[in-house]
Each structure stands twice: as structure tokens, then as C-alpha cells.
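Quick check before the chapter quiz. The format below is the same one you will see on the exam, so make sure you can read both the input and the output lines.
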Amino acid sequence: MKPISSLSLIIPVYNEEDNLSLLHESLVSTLAQIDYDYEIIYVDDGSSDTSFTLLEQLAQQDTKVKVVQFTRNSGQTAAIAAGIDHAGGDAVVFMDADLQNDPTDIPMMLAKLNEGYDVVSGWRKHRQDTWLTRTLPSQLANWLISKITKVHLHDYGCTLKVYRREVLQGYRLYGEMHRFLPAYAAQVGAKIVEVPVKHHPRRYGQSKYGLERTFKVILDLFTVKFLHSYAQKPIYVFGSVGIIFMLSSFLLVSYLLVRKILYGYSLVTNPLLLMSVMFVILGVQSIFMGLIGELLIRTYYESQDKPTYSIGQLLNIRKD
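Here is the expected output.
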């Protein structure tokens, strides 16, 4: 496995003017103690305070600082995606700008990465947030995500994570998808480990996220599950639904015919007949949607010459 020699820190920033100077000072102090080339990429997510002005000053004072400014607020996932696109390090570290993540955990996580892991995920074991509106919804979401993706982590929502750069390639992030990055990495065979990290109460500013974020995460989870299980064979999910509808229609019609033959009940006046016809229509539509999905998937892979597999290493094979 390729050793890590360089590091990219990606930090989304949205209205964190009171935290930035302290954060950068702590980062520089921590990174000075480890033997890696590094860059710090701050992504200003359309801040309306003086955050970008402070980032400009940091970039002028420190050549290792890179700044990406959005023209408008696009969300944490977009900020992380932009950071990945502009990162050049062998390892990529994500963390928040609100001083709740602790930079002193980074050396420990990098050491874990060098043990042979591809992803080191932070776990806020002693989380310093409001239990009812932040911690409890997060625990429920983590349990649900782990069950559905089969990638079991205690804390998907912890931004502090370290990745080998190669496991972040090949997919785009939308919505609230950044929290599902470990699940995406698992799809390409990444070795994932979770480690407890420190978590501090917010000192300045206010949290940008509320209870409504949980519902967005659940909706995105449906997308992740579909892409993980059925992206290459959509006919399996749509076809299965179609077959269930058509079998249900067959059973309803059979029931109605038995009632007609044995007891003389009318078929026409029974609402179950209409339901059986509707099930046939829905079943046919579902199967055709699956076939259309198959055509789209083939167009996607073949037009871009994308493989349907992911290679870890090549031995004695020359790559042209």
C-alpha cells in the first residue's frame, strides 16, 4: 500500500468569523508536529459575515492555505466536493470550522491510516451537543444508515474523517451525501476503522443545522441504498415491484373467480376487480421503468467508457 507523504485538510466555512483565527492557529501548531507536506483548503460556503476576509488574510500570511469561495451558500456537501476537487494530498482530512472537532486528533488518525486502513472515521463518543435536538436524532440516523448500508459506524455525522485519496475518486456528491462517504468508499473495497475523537462544546456562533436535517439525510439514504444495490441492475428493483403487482392482481382475480363460480357473486360490481386491473397496469409500468433504467445504465457506462468494476492493484500488468 502506498505510504502517505502529503496531506490535504478540507474545512467548509459558513459564517465562522469568530472561530477561524483560533482554528488556524491550532491547526498549524498540530501539523508542525507531524512529518507531512500539507495544505489547508478552506471552502467559504457563501458566508455573509467577515469569514472570507479573514480567509484572505490567512492565505496572504501562509502559502499552505488555499481558499475556495462560493458565490452563494450551497451546503456542506458541495463545499466538501469542491475541496476534494482542489486537493492534491495523498490523504484527505475533513473537519468542521466551529472548533468542536479537535485538530490534535489528526496525528492519531493518520497513524491509524498508516496501519493499512483506507478510511479512519471519527466517533464523537462523548458528544457535547443538545441531546434531544442533535444527539438523539443523530443516533437514530446512524443506526438506520448502518443497517441499510451494512457499513457499521457509530457516528456518520462526525465531519472529522481521514481518507486515502484514491477511495474518494469516481463519484459525485449531492444533497447531504457527504456523510455517506464511508459507504461509498466501502463499495470500492476500502478498509474502514472508527476511532473515538474529542468533541468540544461550540464556543462562538450558532449551529447551522437543526432537526430538519435528519429528514433530508433519511431521503438521501434511499438514494444511497438504491445506488449501492441496484445502480448497475435497476431492472432488479423495478422488475421485482412489477412482478409483485402482477402476482397480486392474479391472486385477486383468482379470488373473484372462485367467488363467482361457487357463490354466484358478481365480478363487475366488486371493487377488487378494479384494483386487480390497476395492479396489472402498475406492474407493467414498473417493468418498463426497469428496462428504461437498464438502457440508461448501459448508456452511462459505455458512453464514458467506464468500467463496472474497481481495481485495487495490477501485478506484472502494464497499464497503457
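If your answer matched, good. The chain has a mean pLDDT of 85.
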